Amino acid sequence: MKKLLSGMFAAAALLLGGALFINAEDVDAATLLRVYNPNSGEHHYTANTNERNHLVKVGWRNEGTAWETPAKGAAVYRLYNPNNGGDHHYTVNANEKNHLVKVGWRYEGISWQSGGSVPVYRLYNPNAKTGTHHYTLHEYEKNNLVRVGWRYEGIGFYSTKASTGGGGSSSSGVTPKKVDVNITGLGGVEQGVSGSYRLLYSNKPFDQASLGGNATVDFSADVAMSGNKSDYEMQFVIAGNGKACGQVGVGLHYQAGSDANFAQGRINTTNINFPSNSGVYGQQYYSVNTNAPRIANGQSVKLRVKYFSSGYMQTFVNNSLVGQYKTSLIPGSNAYILHFNTNTPIKVRNLKVLKNGADVTTKGKPSFSSNSYDTSNGAVSGAY
């Protein structure tokens, strides 16, 4: 009888802590899902697709999969704080759970099991009232949050295997589109070479690397893009200097349509990765990150592109890491070319260039003539 009641309870949807939650003492192996509340800053983790769908319906952002959980392992307790706008917390520590209940948190049951060999890192934001804790199995995400002021609190849980991307992917398994064949655009000697091509990915998994210290080139600015066409964009790029020298960067792109895999119908964030000589021998690619911060028409966002001499690039939108990929650039005459180009009105403010950590914004040959631009067509460049 007890087992039957437990099964009935597991199938019953309860509204707990303002969110749909299914409680189950016997938790199966599952793929953990991650959603984000843009109003409170909270990331929420659940194995329950009904709960995830309900939260997305009321305004949370679907961030895809988080990590894999086993059928057996240490119980992960879930708690809810009804104060300060609401917040969830997850812990394997029964003493921590009991303390939080004692000071006013609500215990919501066992959410999943912790087990496996892949660590899930736990971080704390001392400046937030909600969304104070964050959990990730990506070391680069952990390191980036520590750099901007979060506290690393050690390993919170374990996963049976790593997820496939930065914060997961709601569109994993989407076949890349071959968008440019026998490339005829900018890029050097690969122009018109048979077999050269570019692919368009949806949430291409980040390449794993721990990138510390100063980037070789660090290019950033506050950018606002506006438009009223069915297809418009701007690109923010670090390039090598010479033929087939490569270029990397981040683009803001609006394309009409309804394909959610590639974030059509809204301004999306696209990573650009054309490694040196790749066009001559094969693949260059773009990757749309559907989990990147949402951007409204005319909204100013901070764009940042880093290139490391170790052969990796990183891209950021409003200090959120939206791309990390292995690549290579060739700096002819010891210089990299930086440019932003557009076919729609943009405003660029607070443009800054760092080289090995030193501010060289006014020291390029040639430098950008200003750190502020209003333009609607073409490219503006500097060499550093």
List keywords for this structure.
384 residues, mainly beta, eight-stranded mixed sheet, 26 strands
Counted beta strands:
26
* Assembly category: single chain
The helix tally amounts to 5
Q: Poorly predicted ranges (pLDDT <50, ≥5 residues)? A: 1-26, 164-172
Structural class: mainly beta
What does the radius of gyration come to? 23 Å
The amount of helix comes to 10-25%
Look at the structure and give the mean pLDDT. 84
Largest β sheet strand count, sense and barrel closure? 8 strands, mixed
**Distance between the terminal alpha carbons, to the nearest Å?**
74 Å
Silhouette: elongated
Strand content: 35-45%
Strand order of the largest sheet: 12-13-18-17-16-15-22-26
Structure, described:
With 384 residues, the protein is mostly beta strands. It contains five helices and 26 strands. The strands form six sheets. It has an eight-stranded mixed beta sheet with strand order 12-13-18-17-16-15-22-26. Strands 14, 19, 20, 21, 23, 24 and 25 form a seven-stranded antiparallel beta sheet that branches. The protein is elongated and about 65 Å long. It starts with a helix and ends with a strand. The relative contact order is 0.11. The model is unreliable at 1-26 and 164-172 (pLDDT under 50).
